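User: Okay, second chain of the day. Same drill as before: sequence in, structure tokens out.
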Amino acid sequence: MIYDYFHYTQQDRDYYNAHIATRLPKRILDAHTHINLPEHLKNIPPERLQSDWALQTGMHMTADDAIWYYQQFFPDREVLNVAFPIKEADLEANNAYVAECARNGKIAHGLMCLKPEYSCAYIEEEVRTRGFSGFKPYPDIVSGQKGAEIGIFEFLPREQMALAERLGLPI
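Assistant: Same drill. Structure tokens below.
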């Protein structure tokens, strides 16, 4: 579950108690949590991983891992999270995982990761049956390159944006 490079020491605890704990609210909302199952990540090309440090660090976390980390880092706080898969994952399978984790209370809110080619009928059915709290589109899902010059409607078509508005869901 937890990786061998993570070592939370007494020095970390002492620093948290002396400098951080007094500055944090009792309830924290983590609005950007990537959760994934390893089997949904097996088709990510190695060169894609090597090109993005954030992808390297953010792809190896299940909902259970996130809970463990929150308990380690913030032992005296309640952490609610808004979670979604990374775009390189098997999105359909990982969207289902995110929705299941939200239903089971492992995460506070689950966002459906969108592809521009998803039809509004498909998205609306997923929201209805799985209970997503909102949508997470990615610009680089279109180009495969982080930071590419892409217009918003290329990765979030107007129809999908209108659907979010109609359903009252955040993007």
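The first strand starts at residue 27 and ends at 34.

User: Thanks, on to the next one.
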